[in-house]
Amino acid sequence: MPSPGNDTSPLFAEADSSTLGLVGFVLLAVVLMVADHRGRFLDAIRREAAVLAGPVYWLASAPARSVRAVHEMVVDRSRLTDDNTQLRQDLLLAQARLARLTAVEDQNTRLRELLDARTRLGLKAQLGELIDVDLEPFRHRVLIGLGEGDGLAPGQAVMDSRGVLGQVVEVRRYDSLLILITDPGHATPVRVARTGLRSIAYGSGSLDSLSLPHIPFSAGVRVGDALVTSGIGGVFPAGLPVGSIVQVEPDDSATFVLAIATPAAAMARSGEVLVLRDESLRMVGTDGVTLDFVGPPEALATTPTAISAQPDADHSRPPPP
Amino acid sequence: MSLRTRSDSTVFWATLVLGTLLAVVALPTPLLPFKPFWLGLLVIYWALEAPERMSLRNAFLLGLLGDLLVGNLIGEQALRLTIIAFIVLRLRSRMRFFPMLQQALVVFALLFNDRVVMLMVRAFQGSAPPDWTFWVAPVTGVLLWPWLFLLLDIARARVRPRES
Known about the structure:
Helix content of chain A is 35%, strand content 24%. Chain A has helices spanning 19-39, 43-60, 62-74, 77-115, 288-291, 298-301, 304-316; strands at residues 123-131, 141-144, 157-159, 164-171, 176-180, 187-192, 198-203, 210-216, 226-229, 241-250, 256-263, 272-278. The N and C termini of chain B lie close together (11 Å).
């Protein structure tokens, strides 16, 4: 049914919306989704197209950036002085703790030599900044301003100053996607610091909780117990803080307890994060000796200036193949 | 006619750019579940008012763009927007003459249906079912709809005489 002339009447304009067209596009979309999900055929396209997305992200994050800038401008002097004092105190405390840790580390090294243990975990940290865009509220993914050129690789652990944030899932040219540990599809191997019990903390889909199902009653997990990464699975190095348990209740079967934990890291958009790079070995959990390593990664154990110098050092290194 | 089309196209492209920006713009965390499906609302508007601009193909392409930006499964938003565009284009001749309230109801049904489609895609993908806040976005979408509709109508009416 051809329409007369070029002035199509609005009543007949839906000729374009033929069912065949719908079927075609729906099929195309399904094929794309399957290809993307299964085969990862589209990775290259995705990576290239993400370059175009850079300016969009930049524009979209402008409001958040300006809000922060304005906030920093109008925040009064006394607040800043207070902050400064507080930070000084924190630094002092942290340094005192580090000094103690150095002693412990020395001791640890000596004991390791005695035990003839394998080389310890060498970690490098790289400072990155989160980009203030919301990808989707129901998938806990965030964007970080480090990409291929910075030597990022999928599977690297990411943390902020307080604890584990998540891991890198997709590396693109100039930015990368992280999956947070609170994503419903993410599981973090953890250890209860007090008892040594190993478990898995699943993301709950809300930014302030993790769930640990199927903990035996006898394990004696209590509210307030700290969770650290267990190192099993090889993604997260052992000993990084993950969160603390806030609620313990028997599950439906009454044979196990379900524990709820709050993540230690500031999940709701923290500004700067550390991407950890595992230099020496992938930890294997069956090795009892290496598992017991608890302490800050090497780059963290040095002075703060060393950390900020880290990214430069990393640029010079060629990205891993 | 050509003048009208040209001036419309300014508004059209402006809304697309704005819509894609709004789709990824950062909101304070408590507001996150309220973020409406901006691209969906835009597709509804343009399919309703200027179907020659928002064909199935264009809706599909817009969806692809959204997928690349959001970084999830490529084709998901393309599928959702194609379905929205198809339904609107089919109902268009009737929907245009609906009073605002009735139109808003149809928009709500469209956005709700869109969430169901999204849930199905997620289920096939094997991700965990989201919590109840998942269903809040269609409500904010429909609350915004009358304002969006009026705003865009005014914008198009404004741009038109200036260019003629």
